[in-house]
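Run LPXTG-motif cell wall anchor domain-containing protein through structure prediction, thanks.
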Amino acid sequence: YKETIAPNGYVINEETFAFEIKENGEIIKHIVKNKKEEKASLPSKSNKPTPNEEVKPSADVKPMQQPNTHNEVRLPATGGVGNEFTALFVLGIGFIIAGAYVLRMKNRKEM
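Sure, done. The structure for LPXTG-motif cell wall anchor domain-containing protein is below.
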């Protein structure tokens, strides 16, 4: 096996280790010693800009985004104009059928 990700603050060990899986399924523990990363030394005081020098921002600095000050809540559009039309259409058909039924019953009684 080979180490792919080193723990934080450590350098990846590039060495490849061999292992064998035995029939009895015995677990073999192997401890690998990692090397700590060398911390960069602090910059010397001479690198600090003097107050008279103009400091220019580097090209990779991104401007800060403005937070959303609007308190709008956007909900998903689960309905639509078609739902109102469909409900009215079904209700109208129901009234027509009910009216036809009442007329039919009224005509049967007269006979």
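Strands lie at 10-11, 35-36.
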